[in-house]
Amino acid sequence: RIKDVRARQLFDSRGSPTLEVEVETDDGCFRAIVPAGSSSGPYEAHELRDGDLKLFNGNGVSKAIKNVNNELAVAVIGMDPTDQQGIDQALIDCDGSDDGKKSRLGANAILGVSMAVSRAGAAKKGIPLYKHINNLAGNPTVMLPVPCFNVLSGGSRAGNGLSVQEFIVMPTGAESFKHAMQIGVEIYHKLKDMIADKFGKAATNVDDEGGFAPDIDENGEALELLKAAIKETGHQELVQLGIDAAASEFYDNQSGKYNLNFKQTEQQTPPEKMKTANDLLRLYKLYAANYGVISIEDPFDKDDYASYGRMTGELGELIQIIGDDFLGTNMQRMESAVEQNTCNAVLLKLNQVGTVTEAIEANDFARNSGFGVMVSHRAGDTEDSFIAALCAGLGTGQLKSGAPCRSERLAKYNELLRIEDDLGSNAVYAGDYWRDPWML
Ligand code: PGA
Ligand code: ZN
After folding, report:
1. Which of 39, 163, 301, 377 to mutate to test the pocket of ligand 1 (most atoms within 8 A of CB)?
2. Residues measured by CB to lie within 5 Å of ligand 2, the ion
3. Which of 290, 243, 34, 35 is closest to 149 using CA atoms?
4. Which residues are marked as active site?
5. How confident is the model over 389-398, as pLDDT tens digits?
6. What span, in angstroms and rounded, lies between the C-alpha atoms of 428 and 438?
7. Is the model's pTM score more than 0.95?
8. What ipTM did this prediction achieve?
C-alpha cells in the first residue's frame, strides 16, 4: 500500500527547477524526477510553473509541489502501487480539469507521482521496472531500441544558422544495443575531431542535448559533414540518418512560408531562404535520396495538415514521418492523424501526456494503427532513466536521448546497456525492425 507521497524541488539539466516525487510503501521509498521541454507546443499537457518573476524567472515549481503534497497524495495514499491504471485514473480525477491537459494541478505534478508509483509497483512485484511496464502493457516483446543520437544541432536551441533542430544517427544495422552504442560513440568522436579541424576547438562545445552546433548555415552542409564523419569510421553500411526539423519554430505565420533564416531578423532574410511547404518537401526528398535520411520529425508547422498529408502520401512508405509538436502525444491528435494519413509515427514523451498509463495507451494505439513509436527525452532532462525502461518494456524499437554525451542523456543509454545484460541471451535488438518492431 502507498503510505506517503511527497515532492521536493530539484534542478534539471538546464538548471531549471523541476520536481522529484517520492512514494513510500512497505517496500521502501521510490523516486522519480520530471523532465521539461524547451519548445512545449500547445498540444501538450500543461506544465505548471509558478510564474513569480522574482524567483527563477517565473520557472519555480512550488505550486506543483504543493499540489503533490496536499491533493495528489491524499488521492492515492492507501492504494496498491501495482494498480497503475487505477492510480493514474485517481490522479486524473483529482485534477479534474476539463481541458484534458491536467492544467489545474499540473501535468508535471501528476507525472512525478505516476512515475514514482511505477517504481513502487515494480518493487512490490520484485521485478525490474522494464518488466513491470511490460506487464502493464500486456507483455509485448521486450526490445532494445535503436538509439537515435542527436549529434548535430541547429534550430532555436543552437547559436548557428541551421534551421533544422536535430541531425540524428541511427545505427539500425548494429547487431545489438551494445554494438549500436559503440557505433554511435565512434561517430560522435570522429565528428568532434572533424569539427575541431574545420571550425576550431570552440565549435566542439555541446548544446542542451549533447550535440555539436558548429557555425553552419545550410542543412545540406550539416548532412554532408555528418556523412563524412560516418564514412571515416567505416560504419556507413550500419547507420541511417534522421532529422527533427521542428518546423513550427521557423514557420512564418504572416507569409505562410518557412523561413530557413529564422534566427536573423525578417528584413535580412533573402527571398530564396523563404520556402513554401512544397519547396520544403522537395528538400526533404533530396535529403532522403542523397544522405539516406529515413526519419523526419515535425517537417511542417504543427497546424499545416495539408502538407503533412501530402508528404505522408508521397513518402510515407519510404520514410518515417514523426509527429512531435504535431501530435503532442495526444490521443485525439493521433486519432485524426491516423484517419487523415498525415504522418506515420509518434514521438512518445511522458510529460506531453502526463501519466504512465496514458503513455502505454498512446503506444498501443500507435502500434495498432501501424505507426512507428520513438520514445523521447526532453531538452531539459535529468539523471532519471525512466524512459529507458519504458522504451524497452513497450518494445517500441526506437529511443531518442540526445548525443552520447552529458550524463542526463547517457543515463538512458546506460540503463539500456544494463537491461540488455539483464536479458542475456533473451535480449532482442530492434535493428531493421525499428519502424515495425511487432514484426520481429
Ligand atoms: P524539447 O525538444 O524536449 O525541447 O521539446 C525535443 C524535441 O523537439 O524532440
Ligand atoms: Zn521534436
Report:
1. 39
2. 244, 324
3. 243
4. 209, 349
5. 999 999 999 9
6. 12
7. yes
8. 0.98
